[in-house]
């Protein structure tokens, strides 16, 4: 029996795992697991724990009365701090045994294109920007239909025990396998059957995820010259930053950060000028035009060297993302808005909500993916990031830390959705077929939901943000923008600034999501090259130009097709695709957690397999339940095939059913519902195959440890010195100074290492 990675582990020359097991070491920047803790430190963490506990206590004990959103903020931040300080550190030290002396693929395979040791601060920005897309903004807003409490509990508990764990562990294992993709790791470690199923499932799911993320951007930027100009300007700014760091002033991260942020703020302000100028028509684009530009950008971002566009653009975007969310949290503390949405609504029990149909279990846990647990993150953690990370010991801050940051975005999204009047929330997020197209019909429909709002109030809400109408602005982004404008205008500018802050928020959301699409396309290219490499070995070289171009074209063509279909869907592309997005995303998380659990078992860490095994069991229960309901439910609001049958029956009877406007729309609904249902069934079957084969592999590893074979690369000594966290500790500063390096770290000179 393998217990903790010692007795049956391979030798250092084969995988290096025995070295890790024999000398646990410590992560630079934190004390060893056995070192004494100072009284000051104990007092600080007791205080942090109390803040979180009091916040949860207030949320739990409220009985119908409105409470301050600051309590929700306190509960989340206190929990995050405890989770990162103790649970993430436990996993890094005791479970993974991250080794700072081991060279990463970025160091060993540095080619200046895909493999490139990247300053941890820049990489944190890239990783956070890549994983934090539409999900943490859209999902929590939609889930607020059930009340603020169910979503908040899932966001905070889910990220600490599942989402951030998945991201960190996947990043660690991919780093030890030359940055292999999730699908390829499944094939190498689980076996040919489960691996083949995983490769197909992961790539197909990836295409759906990218299409939905791109759809949210298109919806946000359509007819918005301000947003199009400001977002477009981030591309030349990022190119400038890339060449600045690579050619003009290598290593000057702080310097280029100041310049980049200044240019970004200028682009945002200039977007407002453009919107009021004669250039407005030039930057006012239709959805179809935006789709074409999105596809072209995705291809270019995928084939250019990572240092040139992707990394600096994501790093730049992170300043905007983190800065805005931090200011939003500060605004909550200053303005102290109250949560107007009930803690739990009647829709949670009935499952007949107008925003999305289905009961609280499983659909809250499907609707909120990013921010709690997201399979897409595992693709980035086994895609671009492991090819750029300087040190193994940085997996904690980049994998776990970036996911906690994204989760905080999700918390702010659910706060933004819950501080506006519930009547306005449901008028904005309910489809036109449910509430009608006038403020009078919407007011009546929302009142029937149990949340009263007058036609005058609906009209005034639209006027306040200079919109013709806010009715049925589905997709989550407008609701987040409304909440954000409420908070910011309460602190700066008053009601007269609501329109500015609303449009600023719309632009912010588009910037937030676009970074996920470009990074996701590159990750998809890596995945496809890995898969095609099983047929033709040349594709395994991720820098082989013909493979790069072909794989990039196939990836953007795949998500581009679903994006085009989405903007043409009469039922609203986001309404049709988001349920499939949620299920696919969480099924992908099941693949990632299954691979991580298998690797923990195979590498002799059986006693720690629960770290990923428990989240895996929960995720499988949620996603397979949701898949079953979306495939077999007779409720046309829930089941894809039930919806297909309804509209096909209408076609056969010569009827046009709303919201379709003609027979062509009816056929589009039938086709899309059929495709969605078939994909749901396919994804579920493939995941079951992966899980079964993973269970077989784990059983074999436990019963016959001598038969275990790992695809880990041999241990190689690292010549790079770099801090483990964003801020170097005193010990790390001394080590950097002795090597003549600044806080960014770097390669040790031969004279020092000899």
Explain what this protein looks like in three dimensions:
There is one protein chain. With 754 residues, the protein is mostly helical. 68% of the residues lie in helices and 1% in strands. Strands 1-2 form a two-stranded antiparallel ribbon. It is globular.
Labels describing this entry:
single chain; 30 helices; mainly alpha; disordered N terminus; 754 residues; two-stranded antiparallel sheet
Please describe the topology of this protein:
Elements: H1 17-22, H2 39-61, H3 69-96, H4 105-108, H5 120-131, H6 135-143, H7 148-175, H8 182-189, H9 192-221, H10 225-248, H11 253-275, H12 287-303, H13 310-335, H14 347-350, H15 360-367, H16 375-381, H17 395-419, H18 422-429, H19 432-435, H20 439-449, H21 455-464, H22 477-491, H23 498-532, H24 545-568, H25 573-602, H26 610-632, H27 640-652, H28 663-703, E1 720-721, H29 730-738, E2 746-747, H30 750-753
Antiparallel strand pairs: 1-2
Helix pairs in contact: 2-3, 3-7, 3-17, 5-13, 5-17, 6-17, 7-16, 7-17, 7-25, 7-26, 8-9, 8-25, 9-12, 9-23, 9-24, 9-25, 9-28, 10-11, 10-13, 10-23, 12-23, 12-24, 13-17, 13-22, 13-23, 15-26, 16-25, 17-22, 18-20, 20-21, 22-23, 23-24, 24-25, 25-26, 25-28, 26-28, 27-28
